[in-house]
Design brief:
By secondary structure, the protein is α/β, with parallel strands linked by helices. It has two domains: 166 residues, Rossmann fold, CATH 3.40.50; 89 residues, Adenine-specific Methyltransferase, Domain 2 (Adenine-specific Methyltransferase, domain 2, Orthogonal Bundle), CATH 1.10.1020.10. The protein is 36% helix and 18% strand. The protein contains ten helices and eight strands. Strands 3-2-1-4-5-7-6-8 form an eight-stranded mixed sheet, with helices on one face. β1, α2 and β2 form a beta-alpha-beta unit. The relative contact order is 0.14.
């Protein structure tokens, strides 16, 4: 039976929920190692790996502030329930008028409770900001969004994070990858899930070739193991950076489907790639590809 994947309270497009089991298999990470995750996003990977010691960072200050608020006891399962029940009632009564009231309030005060509300009530769970740094995702048009069962689901997710924070030595910081990686101690494990070059839209920061090259240089200089999540190819094109810039790495792949809208015909397949500076064990479930040599010589098993 497959391990249950813990889904965190903050939703993000491109979340790695479906491939977390594969990431956990490929990550050669010991309990004594420190886990560094410079592109934390939702936190779904690190939270499921559940390292004893970890350093989570992201350039989005509102993501980091949310998890720091849980760590500091400002956000608890009890007050999340009270907040969502209260705000959900107003949303059901006032619909989009109230959503935009909360959005304007968040852009003034940046309250982490309002960030959670917007993340769950906005269109498609997107996190997007304009050039002024204002959250600008439109309403998802679900006035009954915060029904009792849905609120309970979010409350349980917050409770799970709260429990993990009590058990482990985790740190959260607003930092860019080029600040974090050089400071990662020798022997630590670095997991990177940057915006996918050539594919990403609507992330907090932009991502281009210069960023990709800098990330490559920093990871290759790291005195320890690393894993990079990226895309390999889809039906229309190939990520050439996997075969040029990252050609020294070992590659593990899996087909993954992204949904755009509700129709089955809108399921878009992409081959996800995990690139590592070590050769992972070659025992994988059917349908995956594992390279036992650098990416230029990828083998199917």
């Amino acid at each position: 039976m497959a391990d249950k994947v813990f889904v965190p309270p903050i939703k993000i497009q491109g979340i790695k929920t479906k491939i977390v089991p594969l990431i956990k298999q490929v990550a050669e990470f010991a309990d004594s190692d420190v886990w560094f995750e410079p592109f934390m996003g939702s936190g779904v990977v690190g939270f499921n790996v559940a390292p004893k010691r970890a350093f989570f960072s992201d350039t989005n200050p509102y993501l980091i502030a949310f998890y720091q608020a849980i760590q500091d006891g400002e956000i608890t399962p009890a007050n999340v329930r009270a907040y969502l029940e209260s705000e959900g009632k107003k949303l059901s009564e006032l619909d989009d008028e109230y959503y935009y009231e909360v959005r304007n309030r968040f852009n003034r005060h940046h309250d982490p409770f309002d960030f959670l509300f917007l993340n769950r009530a906005c269109f498609n769970g997107m996190i997007r900001f304009n050039k002024k740094g204002e959250f600008n995702v439109p309403y998802g048009h679900k006035p009954q969004r915060f029904a009792k069962a849905y609120v309970t689901k979010i409350v349980n997710q917050v409770a799970n994070v709260e429990a993990m924070l009590r058990l482990n030595d985790w740190h959260f910081s607003v930092m860019s990858f080029d600040e974090v990686i050089p400071g990662a101690e020798s022997g630590s494990f670095i997991y990177c899930d940057p915006p996918y070059i050539g594919r990403h839209v609507d992330y907090f920061d932009s991502w281009d070739e210069e960023n990709e090259v800098t990330l490559h240089e920093l990871l290759m200089a790291h005195q320890g193991k690393f894993m990079l999540s990226t895309w390999d190819h889809n039906s229309y094109r190939t990520n050439d950076y996997v075969y040029t810039l990252w050609h020294e790495c070992h590659k593990t792949t899996r087909e993954h489907f992204y949904h755009v809208g509700a129709r089955e015909s809108n399921r878009n397949a992409v081959i996800e790639a995990l690139l590592t500076n070590y050769a992972p064990a070659a025992i994988r479930p059917e349908g995956e590809r594992v390279s036992l040599a650098p990416t230029q010589q990828s083998l199917a098993i």
